[in-house]
Structures are given as structure tokens and as C-alpha cells.
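quick one
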Amino acid sequence: MSELSIPINLSEELKMLQDLVREVVRNEVIPVRKELDEKHEYPWKVFEKFREAGLFQAMFDEEYGGMGLGMMGNIILAEEIAYGCLGVGTAFLATKLGSLPIEVGGTDEQKKKWLPRLASGEIIAAFGLTEPNAGSDVPSLQTTAVKKGDKYILNGTKQWISGAGQAHVYTVFAITDKSRGPRGISCFIVEKGTPGFSFGKKEDKLGIRCSETRQLIFEDCEVPAENLVGGRENNGFIHALKTLNLSRPAVAASAVGTAQGAYDAAMQYAREREQFGVKIVSFQAIQHMLAIMATKIEAARLLTYKAAVMAENGHKDTAKFSAMAKYFASETAMEVATNAVQIFGGYGYVREYPVEKYFRDAKILQIYEGTSQIQLNEIAAGLIKESTTKKVIY
Ligand SMILES: Cc1cc2nc3c(=O)[nH]c(=O)nc-3n(C[C@H](O)[C@H](O)[C@H](O)COP(=O)(O)OP(=O)(O)OC[C@H]3O[C@@H](n4cnc5c(N)ncnc54)[C@H](O)[C@@H]3O)c2cc1C
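structure w/ flavin-adenine dinucleotide:
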């Protein structure tokens, strides 16, 4: 496969993964998603099934005990799990998000120590970047890490962390040199149970309710110096940017899965529901809604695959394409879920049917891992940069 060929037809290996995840999602996620959502219950039991099926391994390199399926493996996982439940998908992918700073920036020792345990599903991870006063404006974060002997002392609070409280290990971003702005941020691996490390209350969210979200609170928390990712201070911002470039295509894939789930439910319902003596699918208004939904889902899927292939190959335009995929797929998921509720009419507005949950869940896709507005900023920055070297005759 050349660097930029987009896998419209998945390889045999990826098709096998897709079949496997579809079966696990059908048997283990779809039957329990409503209950998990209602009870606000973290999906440990589902993770046990994922572990048995080897799905944690599918996210990691062979060198560390994974299956070595690369970015496309993550894309398939994200799409298929979100098709069943974005809450389960978010909780599951939080481990990859929390592992990525180690994968992109860790020392060999750190990779050998942590990645095999994460790949086996023995432990799960979370990613601690956002703070109460530093959301889109990441460089303004205030958590500090001060070196004292062979330890760093962390103080500060992280906000909205997926998997917080449940995860065993956290990649946490903190300032080590305030005078250097974003170039003075470092990343640390912090284990649950470290003295001075606690969690805030469980957030009561609109959607993805089975994915636990809490604050991380650091009060004179002593972290061993060997847990500084990469072993060198002030590289944390680069680790964060590389992480987001690699994780945004997976969020886009989650959006494609969410949209596909909502669309499939809407199509099925439109073929069953009768009004004015005919199935509602025979009304052109409904057909056009379904046609636009399906077209946008296909477009989002192709853009997601393209961004994934570019990210995997370290293409120079990765940031722009990852942002394009995340933006377009998230907007598509929200639009498709909204129209799915419309096609269900009053039945779409109640909890008996699945589209109400797709609608609540989809909203987070436009917010986490960079809001839609931030993706547009990133895309525009890329476009303006490339326009300076492109001479156009008009
Ligand atoms: C359920 C959930 C799970 C999350 N999981 C994680 C996690 O695991 N780890 C983690 O680190 N973070 C996580 N986040 C945080 C998430 O990434 C942030 O919420 C997001 O980046 C937005 O930050 P904010 O909420 O502070 O909004 P703000 O940055 O305050 O933005 C508010 C509004 O202003 C707009 N805005 C801000 N700046 C600009 C600008 N320059 N141009 C145009 N518009 C702008 C935004 O688009 C938004 O509409 C999670 C959030 C939620 C809600």
C-alpha cells in the first residue's frame, strides 16, 4: 500500500477484526447499553468480554503484545464499538488515549514497563490534559511539577477526565518551566493510589453516561522522576499534540459508528412505520433525509480513513486532516442522530427506542478532544500555511 492509498476495501486482517468486533458488540454491548446508561454504570463487565476477545490487544503494536494492526485497527474498533454504544466506546478508547503519550514519547523502559500490561487489558489508562481553566486553551494549564530529589511534586486539578477513578494509570500534563510557555510543559505517568492523588465527584452527564468522568486532584503528589515521559522535561506539549493527531481520527471513527447506528435504526423504523396508509419510507421527505444521512456517513468514513492513513505515515498534513475528519464526522453524527429522532417522531423522543440515546451521546463528539470550533481553527491554520507556497492564477 502506498503512503496515501486509502483502504476502501479493508485487508483480510482488518475484515476479520471488524467481524469479531461486530459480533462482540452485538452480543455484549447492544443488550446492556440501555441499562448501563440508565444506571450510570462503568462497563467493567463488557471490558471483560473485550479482553477475552483480544480487543485491547488490537489497539497496540506487536512489539508490546498487541496485534500490530496499526491505526486502521483502532479505526475499526472505534467505529464498531460506537455503533453499539458511544459510552462504552469512549470508556474503552480512553485507554488508548492515555497510552499514546507513552507510545509517542516514552523511553524504551517506559514502553516495556507499561504497554504490554495495557495491551493485555490487565490495566487501563486515562489522559489528563484539560483543566478547569484550560480547555481549548491548553497552553494556559496551571498544574505544576517541581523536581525534588528523585521525585516530582505535582499540584493542580485536571477536569473532565474520561476513565478517572477507574483507570489504573494516568498520563498527566504539568508545567515544569513556566518561563517557557507551552514549551515548559512535561508529561508524567501517575499511578492510581499514589499518595496526594485523588478524584472529584462522578459527573452527571447528558450522554455517554457509562463512561465515568471526574476531576484528577493532585495535592503534593510525589511522582517518581522515572515516570517523566521520555525522561526529559518540557517535551509534554509535543507529546500532547502528537497524541491528539493520532487520536482524533479514532474520535472521527467513533462519530461514523454513532451516525451509522442512528441511521440504521431510522431506516428500519421508516420501513416499518405506517401513516396515511403507507410506510413512511415512501414519503420523499423521509427518503431525502435518509439519502443525506447515508451520503454524509460515507463521506465522513472516507475522510476518517484518509486521516488515519496520513497520521500513521507521519504525513506533514496530518494535523489538518485529523482535524477535518474529527470536525466533519462529529458534525455528521450530530446531524444524523437529530434526523434519526425526527424520523422516529414522538417515538424518537423517549427512552424505549435507541435514537434518543444516539442523540444525547453524539453531542460530546463536537466537544471532546478539541471542539468543532478548535478543529476549524486548526484546519484554517493549515490551509493558510499551505496557501503561502501555492501560486494561484485567477
Ligand atoms: C465528557 C467529557 C470527556 C472528556 N474527556 C477528556 C479526557 O479524557 N482528557 C482530557 O484531557 N480532557 C477531556 N475532556 C475535555 C475536553 O477536551 C474539553 O472539554 C474541550 O477541549 C473544551 O474545553 P472546555 O470545556 O474548557 O471549553 P472552552 O475551551 O471553555 O470552550 C467554550 C466554547 O468556546 C469556544 N472556543 C474556545 N476557544 C476558542 C477559539 N480560540 N476560537 C473559537 N472558539 C473557541 C469552544 O469551541 C466552545 O464552544 C472531556 C470533556 C468532556 C465533556
